[in-house]
Design a protein that fits this description.
The chain has nine helices and nine strands. The protein is an alpha/beta fold. α1 (about 50-60) crosses α9 (about 290-305). Bound molecules: manganese (II) ion.
C-alpha cells in the first residue's frame, strides 16, 4: 500500500499505513488528486486532508473526546476510545497520475470489504467514483451528491475520469441505485444534454433554489430509498460565505445546516456507507472555515451513527 502517514491523526485517533489492521468502524483517508486536465489539478487540493486534520486539532476536538457535544447530545467517543483510525494519504505519482485510481482503489477495497466506513478528503471532484467503485459487487448503494455543478460530462479534453465526470462515472457502476444531486446553481461545464442525460438515468436534481424556496425537507424525503448512502460533497455546493476555500465560488449556495441536515438524518438511521469531501483548497480558505465545516460533517456522522448499518438508539 502506498500510504503517507498523517501529519496529525484525525481527531487524535490511531493511525496506520496498513488498512487490513484497522478495527474501528470509521477510517479517515486522504486522496490528493484524481486524473487531471492540467498540471495544477494535482496540487491545488493535495493538502486538503491535512487541513482538515489541522482544523480538528486547532479546535481541540482531538482531545475533547468526553466533552458533551450538543450536535449529538453526548461525547464524540463515549467510551473514551476513538472510533476512527487515520489511514494517512494515498501517495500519488505526478508522473503517472491515472495510477492513483488503482492505488486509492486498493486501499478502499480493503476498507469496504472489512465493513469500514470511509471518511475521505479528496483532491478535486474526480475522487468520488473511486470510493463508490469499492462497493461494486458487494452492496447496492445510493449516492447523495452536494455540489453547485452537475458533473455529468462524458469527457473533457479526452479525460473521462476528471472532475467534470464523477457522477457520470458513478452512474456507470452496477452497484448504484438512487442518485440525488443537490445544490446545483449557476453554470458549469454541463450543457442541456448532460442535464437531460442525468434525468434520463434517474438522477433526482434538487437545485439550490429548490432548497431555498421549499426547504431542505424535500431532500430528506428524497433519501427514502432502501439501502445505505454514500454522501459526496463538493465544497462549492455550500455557499462561499460558509465554505470560501474553493476554486469556483458561486453565490446562492447551501448553508451548513442545509447540508448537515440530510447527512444527520442518514447517520441517525445508520445509513451512511461513506462520506467524501472534495474541492477543498486550503490556500484559498479563510481562517480554516471550509476545513472546519468538513471536520464537523465528518464528526456528525461519527457522533450520530454509533453503529454503521443500525439506527441510532434515540432515532
Ligand atoms: Mn463543483
Amino acid at each position: 500500500m502506498s500510504l503517507r502517514a498523517p501529519s496529525l491523526p484525525f481527531l487524535g485517533g490511531p493511525a496506520t499505513g496498513d488498512p487490513a489492521t484497522i478495527r474501528t468502524p470509521y477510517v479517515f483517508l486522504g486522496i490528493p488528486f484524481g486524473p487531471p486536465y492540467a498540471p495544477e489539478d494535482l496540487v491545488v487540493c493535495a493538502d486538503a486532508a491535512d487541513a482538515v486534520r489541522a482544523s480538528a486539532h486547532r479546535m481541540e476536538y482531538d482531545t475533547m473526546w468526553l466533552s458533551h457535544d450538543f450536535d449529538w447530545g453526548g461525547p464524540l467517543f463515549p467510551d473514551g476510545v476513538p472510533t476512527v483510525t487515520d489511514c494517512g494519504d494515498v501517495i500519488g505519482d505526478v508522473r503517472d497520475p491515472d495510477r492513483i485510481w488503482d492505488d486509492a482503489g486498493a486501499v478502499l477495497d480493503v476498507l469496504v470489504a472489512d465493513g469500514r466506513v470511509p471518511l475521505v478528503v479528496g483532491g478535486l471532484d474526480a475522487i468520488p467514483p473511486m470510493v463508490v467503485g469499492a462497493f461494486e459487487g458487494r452492496e447496492t448503494v445510493n449516492v447523495l451528491h452536494v455540489d453547485a455543478h452537475l458533473d455529468f460530462r462524458h469527457e473533457r479534453d479526452g479525460v473521462t475520469r476528471g472532475y467534470s465526470s464523477p457522477i457520470r462515472r458513478i452512474r456507470d457502476l452496477a452497484c448504484v441505485a438512487e442518485v440525488v444531486q443537490v445544490g446545483m446553481r449557476g453554470a458549469g461545464y454541463s450543457g442541456d444534454p448532460e442535464v437531460a442525460d442525468a434525468r434520463a438515468c434517474g438522477n433526482r436534481i434538487i437545485t439550490a433554489w429548490d432548497v431555498h424556496e421549499h426547504g431542505i425537507a424535500s431532500v430528506v424525503e428524497a433519501l427514502a430509498a432502501s439501502g445505505r448512502w454514500i454522501v459526496t460533497i463538493d465544497c462549492d455546493g455550500l455557499d462561499p460565505t460558509v465554505a470560501p476555500g474553493v476554486g469556483w465560488p458561486e453565490p446562492g449556495g447551501l448553508t451548513y445546516a442545509q447540508v448537515a441536515t440530510p447527512i444527520r438524518a442518514l447517520a441517525r438511521a445508520g445509513r451512511v456507507a461513506a462520506l467524501v469531501v472534495t474541492e477543498l483548497r486550503p490556500a484559498l480558505d479563510v481562517r480554516g472555515a471550509t476545513a472546519h465545516v468538513a471536520t464537523r460533517l465528518f464528526m456528525n456522522v461519527i457522533g450520530l451513527q454509533r453503529t454503521p448499518g443500525a439506527a441510532h438508539p434515540a432515532a
